[in-house]
Write a structure and sequence with these properties.
CATH superfamily of the largest domain: Porin chaperone SurA, peptide-binding domain
Strand content: 5-15%
Largest sheet: 4 strands, antiparallel
Strand order of the largest sheet: 5-4-7-6
CATH topology of the largest domain: Triger factor/SurA peptide-binding fold
Order of helices and strands: HHEEHHHHHHEEHHEHEEEHE
CATH architecture of the largest domain: Orthogonal Bundle
Shape: elongated
Length: 347
């Protein structure tokens, strides 16, 4: 159930910020104890004022400014740290919040048209779980006062609404976005080229690079450093030992990652590095390789011939990716369907 409890509690905290009258240290659209909004988009308001101000009408049903703000906090949970919503992103946050609560209201209205129901047992369980999320009885009572007119029956209606929205999402999105193992395998078979690769290597590097425009003495000093580095590198027995040396002496950007590079196709490497790698065994450390004005030492950690990534290797990620894709598509189709003929006013 989408209870929005963290957003509710944050709004309770933020409500005290909305009437302060000092100048903001940075542009935001919601006031804090030491600031007022720099933007005219969101004026300082109490929770009660937000709850009573109508922001959206969906087929005649009214949604409040508090509904919008709560969704905005859900989208941007760092509102407290930022003293509200930063001016540069506030319009997009608000746009996303408005779209979300319209979508949910349309889902709820469709659930009622279908006469979907929630069992009394599930409703009672959800209500008990919802109440437990409040850190204090005072905050729970504040929520009841502002959003439920002090009525637990109104609260139950809100919880029932949330559960019906979840039920609709399951029926229209989750259940329609199921990805079976057969579907995953079919995609793999039909898109086999995505999983083909050339000859690849995994390497670590140590690079000694004299500064641009260095004179002969500086270049000679760099070469001497490289010659000493290759002696130490060849004495290393493990990738970790090589990596510790890379951290100490390497001048390339990968020294902070113990010299570890991503898996690369051999054809992507400089020719002289590719030639060295192809003639090494896993665990070997190369001699000095001159690449332009740099001296490079590599350790070969893995070597694979050209081929195709096995299905078992990609199955889990592919299944997850297809699931996400189908979910996005199902949700977008549902949103479009619900909007057809809907009367929506954003005030």
């Amino acid at each position: 159930m989408r209870t929005r409890l963290p957003a509710i509690i944050l709004l309770i905290a933020l409500s005290g910020m909305m009437s302060a009258q000092m100048v903001s240290s940075h542009a935001s659209t919601m006031a804090s104890p030491t600031s007022t909004p720099a933007s005219g988009n969101l004026q300082p308001m109490t929770q009660e004022e937000m709850a009573s101000k109508i922001a959206i009408r969906v087929n005649g049903s009214e949604l409040s400014e508090l509904d919008v703000r709560r969704e905005m906090v859900t989208i941007f949970p760092y509102a407290m740290q930022h003293n509200g919503f930063p001016k540069d992103v506030e319009p997009e946050i608000r746009k996303g919040a408005v779209e979300m609560i319209i979508f949910e209201e349309l889902l709820y209205q469709d659930a009622k048209r279908r006469n979907l129901t929630i069992s009394s047992e599930k409703l009672a369980s959800a209500e008990a779980a919802f109440r437990k999320q409040f850190p204090s009885q005072a905050q729970y009572q504040q929520y009841l006062k502002v959003e439920c007119k002090g009525s637990t029956e109104v609260l139950r209606d809100k919880i029932r609404r949330s559960l019906l929205i979840e039920k609709m999402l399951k029926l229209e999105v989750t259940d329609k976005a199921v990805v079976t193992p057969a579907m995953v395998h079919e995609y793999y078979d039909k898109n086999g080229k995505e999983y083909e690769h050339g000859e690849t290597v995994d390497i670590q590097t140590i690079s000694i690079v004299p500064p641009p425009g260095a004179n002969k003495d500086v270049i000679a000093s760099a070469q001497k450093k490289a010659e000493e580095a290759v002696k130490q590198a060849k004495q290393s027995k493990t990738a970790e030992q090589f990596g510790l040396l890379a951290e100490q002496v390497s001048d390339d950007d990968w020294h902070t990652k113990m010299g570890v590079r991503k898996t690369m196709e051999v054809k992507e490497l400089p020719p002289m590095v590719a030639t060295a790698a192809k003639n090494m065994k896993v665990g070997d450390v190369s001699d000095l390789i001159q690449v332009g004005n740099a001296w490079v030492i590599i350790r070969l950690n893995a070597h694979a011939q050209a081929g195709k990534i096995p299905f078992d290797t990609v199955q889990k990620k592919l299944s997850s990716d297809l699931q996400k894709q189908k979910t996005v598509e199902a949700r977008a189709a549902l949103n479009q369907k619900l909007h057809q003929g809907a009367r929506i006013e954003v005030l």
